[in-house]
Design a protein that fits this description.
- With 790 residues, this protein is α/β, with parallel strands linked by helices.
- The protein has three domains: 289 residues, Alkaline Phosphatase, subunit A; 112 residues, Gyrase A, domain 2 (2-Layer Sandwich); 284 residues, Extracellular Endonuclease, Chain A, CATH 3.40.570.
- Helices cover 21% and strands 18% of the residues.
- It starts with 10 loop residues before the first helix and ends in a 9-residue tail after the last helix.
- One of its GO terms (cellular component) is sarcoplasmic reticulum.
């Protein structure tokens, strides 16, 4: 939602507002204006005052020769505009012709993914810093920090110390540039000591024409006063979307879009008339989409799951999920902080939520949170998170539900939901013409901004430097020196395979040549940490020190139809045997002794499992692929993943699988330092990973026309490459999700796996020579929106 959180206007708020009004332009602090709304929940805005034809297209250069002919603008300023709540699906209404025209001579994304949760404050901070909410600290529109806030508060009122990272306006000012901000959250906070040169705080009553006139005035300033960077926030169509959805006056959003279109025609026309339109790099984005609400969930009405059974059962004196002392956010993503609640633990709360009501919400703790959310590193995300399903809104109790019945739309849901997708448009003398780019996540914006401002890329962020290069032109990009990636060295082909306890050897008889897969599939900046071994057509990567624990292990396996003739028809929810049942008798005895040894001093329900896709292959005897894993996970989620992999190999006939382990016990999304991971296990043989990953690669155009080049190790037509990646937390599945639903929820970017293992993929220059860099970045940064058909 926008900067509105309280419906009713108090007398004190009126007094504060009156004291804040100056002659001429009304400048009001954000902390005040968020309280000012009408009884309907929406602010009363001034008329935009734009009296012009619906279409005014003189500004649109039909031949798209976007080139500055104004000598007063030797370096293009960067204008960033955010349209709160502009869902990508709104473009399908064919109303925003101004943005369509902008894109014809510029660049647009098919859509942009918000960061999780898809809320206003977190995503404006993310777009400004390039950091995920878990990293910059604004994890929702409200935050709780035991030391800084002491209670759940609106992020507007949070101490500046609650904000982490370097916002783009701060980076610009720190680098000696001028930066003006108009209402962009949280430009009014002194985060780094480098604040906007000129700040106009958010005013809910300011019309969009007033905002655009401020922008025009700034851009027409003399060169010695003109800002190099302008950040401008517009609160529509979010304000309309919250109160006028498909259930209530659905045409109201279209009316708002028509106004916005007219207003942007005005802005572009005025810039064109001033001969500066082609002298400015303009980026227009949104923070999230909008979802129609269908029901509310009140946490104090949740009953004792295990005692009463079905969640719909009501009982007088039933167990209450909400405890005194808890801090709970009211949102589509409800964050539960145990805080000062007595006799309550994360484990007890998760136990009560187990398989509770998957149609209304999903329950996660920080350890089980899907990795693609990047929502676990900070304690501010909560001890338990109840993620509302699309259309659900969660409140602590009825008294906390301050929204009127007219509040019929909201956001914050999983960013892969189409209704949450946002927009990206760009135009300017340094922006490519007529380019449509694949979807990307908004953490990538910050590096684009620093490049367009010619800043040295020295500001840490979660984006991937270089991923937006193809959007720009006529610009010498500044790139820092980085330690080069090196291929992980191979110790050669293995012909004798040893069982786990080395009580048996087996000679490998390879049916396919050793050159049949990628020549150097694994690269790393710490390549001396790893070594690779070839087992026929499979390649194992492991620590080069067998006594060193907590280092990722992975196995690359080509899968084919012939491998899966029987297994490809296994039901996806069938479970696979653990290692012990596929091992010979002596090995099995030794294994059970190991598990018994562990369980005598531990309540952990663990068993030995292998991470390879070919779990019944001879590689199942390889000790390097054996790990201590939660038995429930092994019998359920890991089996589901193996069954799905088999189905894909059966359908697509040729699939490349890379499976391995992750150690991220500190939950920061980066591989743990092995020295910090306590991996004491019987005889020092087995690791216990926090997560298991798998990357599946296939060629869209099928195997029968030479699509997969075994000698080259890639698809013959690179653009036909399809990639599907998973990161599964080694935890019992708490929501009783169907296998497909669970696996989709835990899809991941290849880049996430790279960060969590220290290994980079698709980096072999010989294998991928001639493949365009944007395509390789897309492989690594791709966000899955649906599983492959099987």
């Amino acid at each position: 939602m926008g900067f509105k959180f309280v419906k009713n206007l108090s007398g004190r708020a009126i007094a504060i507002l009156s004291a804040a009004i100056f002659a001429g332009l009304v400048l009001v602090t954000v902390a005040t204006i968020i309280l000012v709304t009408s009884l309907s929940g929406r602010p009363v805005k001034a008329d935009d005052g734009i009296k012009m034809p619906e279409e005014r297209t003189a500004w649109h250069n039909g031949d798209c020769n976007v080139k500055c002919n104004n000598s007063d603008y030797p370096t293009p300023p960067l204008l960033l505009i955010s349209l709160d709540g502009f869902a990508n699906q709104y473009m399908g209404r064919n109303i925003m012709t101004s943005l369509d025209r902008m894109a014809r001579c510029g660049t647009r994304a098919k859509h942009m993914f918000p960061s999780y949760p898809s809320k206003t404050f977190p995503n404006h901070m993310t777009m400004a810093t390039g950091l995920y909410p878990e990293t910059h600290g604004i994890v929702d529109n409200t935050i709780y920090d035991e030391e800084l806030t002491g209670k759940m508060i609106n992020a507007v009122f949070a101490d500046s110390r609650a904000f982490h990272g370097e916002p783009i306006w701060s980076a610009a000012v720190r680098s000696g540039l001028r930066s003006n901000a108009l209402g962009w959250f949280p430009s009014f906070k002194n985060i780094t000591g480098y604040n906007p040169t000129v700040l106009v705080s958010y005013d809910a009553h300011m019309s969009n024409k007033q905002r655009m006139d401020i922008i025009l005035d700034w851009l027409k300033q003399p060169a010695d006063k003109r800002p190099h960077l302008l950040n401008a926030y517009f609160d529509e169509p979010d304000m309309t979307g919250h109160y006028y959805t498909n259930r209530r006056k659905p045409l109201e959003v279209s009316r708002t879009l028509k106004k916005l279109n007219r207003q942007f025609e005005y802005l572009f026309s005025e810039l064109y008339q001033a001969n500066i339109l082609d002298c400015i790099n303009i980026v227009i984005v949104s923070d999230h989409g909008m979802q129609t609400l269908d029901s509310r969930v009140y946490m104090d009405e949740l009953i004792h799951n295990h005692h009463w059974g079905h969640a719909s059962f009501k009982a007088k004196d039933a167990w209450n999920f909400v405890k005194d002392g808890m801090e709970i956010s009211n949102s589509v993503v409800a964050r539960v902080h145990i805080a000062k609640a007595e006799n309550t633990t994360t484990e007890s709360l998760m136990a009560e939520m187990e398989c509770y009501d998957k149609d209304s919400f999903r329950a996660y703790d920080r350890k089980s949170m899907p990795k693609r959310y990047h929502y676990a590193a900070s304690p501010r995300v909560g001890d338990v998170v109840l993620e509302g399903r699309p259309g659900k809104l969660i409140f602590k109790d009825l008294e906390s539900d301050l929204e009127s019945e007219t509040f019929t739309g909201d956001h914050g849901y999983d960013y892969v939901e189409a209704v949450m997708h946002s927009i990206f448009f760009a135009r300017g003398p340094e922006i490519q013409n007529g380019l449509v780019v694949e979807p990307f996540q908004n953490v990538e914006l910050f590096n684009l901004f620093t490049d367009l401002l010619r800043l040295e890329p020295k500001f840490p962020n979660n984006g991937t430097l270089g991923s937006m290069d193809h959007i720009m032109k006529n610009l010498s990009l500044i790139r820092p020196f980085e330690e080069p990636l090196q291929p992980v060295q191979s110790s050669g082909a293995v012909t004798q395979l040893f069982a786990l306890f080395e009580n048996e050897t087996k000679t490998l008889n390879c049916d396919s040549p050793a050159s049949g897969t990628l020549g150097a599939p694994f690269y790393s900046k710490m390549s001396n940490t790893f070594t690779t071994e070839r087992y026929c057509d499979s390649i194992l990567l492991r620590s080069n020190d067998t006594s060193r624990k907590g280092v990722s292990t992975m196995i690359l396996e080509p899968l084919s139809y012939s491998d899966q003739t029987n297994e490809g028809r296994r039901p996806i929810n069938d479970f696979w045997p653990t290692f012990a049942s596929s091992c010979d008798q002596e090995c099995r005895t030794n294994w059970f002794n190991a598990v018994h040894y562990i369980n005598t001093d531990s309540t952990d329900n663990v068993s030995g499992s292998i991470v390879a896709s070919k779990s019944f292959d001879v590689l199942s005897r390889l000790s390097s692929l054996q790990f201590l894993i939660n038995t429930d996970f092994s019998r359920a989620q890991l089996s589901w993943l193996n069954n799905l992999t088999d189905k894909y190999a059966y359908k697509y006939e040729q699939v490349l699988s890379i499976s391995g382990t992750i150690f991220d016990y500190d939950l920061n999304g980066v591989a743990d330092d092995p020295l910090s991971v306590d991996m004491e296990t019987p005889w020092g043989l087995l690791d216990s990973p926090s997560h298991i990953f798998r990357i599946l690669i296939r060629c869209e155009d099928g195997p029968h026309n030479g699509a997969w080049g075994y000698e080259s190790g890639r698809c013959a037509t690179p653009s036909q490459t399809r990639i599907l990646a998973f990161i599964l937390p080694v935890q019992k599945e708490a929501n009783c999700l169907d296998p497909d639903v669970y696996l989709f929820a835990n899809t991941a970017r290849v880049r996430d796996i790279e960060l969590l293992t220290g290994v980079q993929f698709f980096a072999d220059n010989s294998t991928f020579a001639g493949v365009e860099k944007p395509l390789i970045y897309n492989w690594r940064l791709n966000i899955t929106t649906e599983l492959w058909d099987y």
